[in-house]
Design a protein that fits this description.
By secondary structure, this protein is mainly β. The chain is built from four helices and nine strands; from the N terminus they run ββαββααββαβββ. A five-stranded mixed β-sheet has the order 2-1-9-5-6. Strands 3-4-7-8 form a four-stranded antiparallel β-sheet. The radius of gyration is 18 Å and the shape is globular.
């Protein structure tokens, strides 16, 4: 993490893409422009270093996506229930959330694209899921946010997809 306080202030660019393929490149400065800021206190139980306490500040991930890619999430609840948010970071780490986790008619969790971590302005946003007990879906230095739809029907059993074998 490195600060972007001084003259730069913009930070690295990252890509936000809606379900229809519309794409916008943003940076940390763009995230603060015209969007309400949110603050989240989070404690993640890190598998290697134990509990980590952080204060994150930034816009809701949902607001960013809908703000730059209006019309990305369809109107029907059932249609929105099949959407996924895929987020990638500069270190190759990826996380996936169901759109229903951040949708106001479903769970509406305050998932942030943080621009500040513990008071320090970031060069690139971090995905922060404050309700998570572990930090596996915390993505540092976000490079891409994608809204994608599950493709085709998902088989309920292995046999329906022609895979798997019978045991016994």
């Amino acid at each position: 993490m490195s600060g972007a306080e001084g003259g730069a202030g913009a930070g690295r660019r990252f890509d936000v893409r809606g379900e229809a393929g519309e794409s916008v490149r943003l940076n940390v400065a763009d995230l603060g422009s015209g969007r309400p800021g949110h603050r989240a206190e989070a404690v993640f139980d890190c598998a290697t270093s134990g509990p980590r306490h952080h204060t994150s500040e930034g816009p809701l991930q949902r607001d960013v996506l809908l703000g730059v890619c209006p019309g990305s999430a369809p109107g029907s609840r059932k249609d929105r229930a099949g959407l996924l948010l895929a987020v990638g970071g500069a270190d190759g780490h990826h996380a996936v959330l169901a759109w229903a986790e951040v949708d106001e008619e479903f769970r509406y969790a305050p998932v942030l694209l943080a621009v500040r971590l513990d008071g320090v302005l970031l060069d690139a946003p971090h995905l922060v899921v404050p309700a998570d007990r572990c930090g596996a879906r915390y993505v540092s230095a976000v490079t891409a946010v994608r809204l994608v739809r599950l493709g085709g029907p998902v088989p309920v059993t292995g046999q329906a997809a022609g895979v798997g074998r019978e045991v016994g």
